[in-house]
Here is the input.
Amino acid sequence: MVAEALEYVSNNLASVMTGLTMAVVGISVYEARDGFFLFNGKFQGKYSALVIFSGTLFGASLITPKVSDWWAQLLPYIPPGQLLGVGLVLGMLGVNKAAEWNFFDIKSLPVYGVGVVLIANPEVLHTVA
Here is the structure.
């Protein structure tokens, strides 16, 4: 069952990485919370927010296939350790941005560190495993 799950992830890795990339891009464009909408560091009214939201959705829809193609072409050349490292770094950045947490707190730094080590030296993954 684990082997089937890993094979499924492996077969759909371009989609996984596209989703991760688009999530990081998406949370970087604007910030919406209960009662406010920020874009470029400025509060926006309801109509401006609608235009920004719709434009972002439209733009993201247009670039997603390009990002997916890019990942599909790139993935065969990326060792699994580097891919895991990129996933850790981008994932931690995304979580911190979405939750408005400190990017460089004591809990984030080890994740970044492991990610950077895996990016720089992907063979470490085989040593640990």
Summary: The longest helix spans residues 46-74. DSSP finds six helices and three strands in the chain. The radius of gyration is 17 Å. The first strand starts at residue 30 and ends at 33.
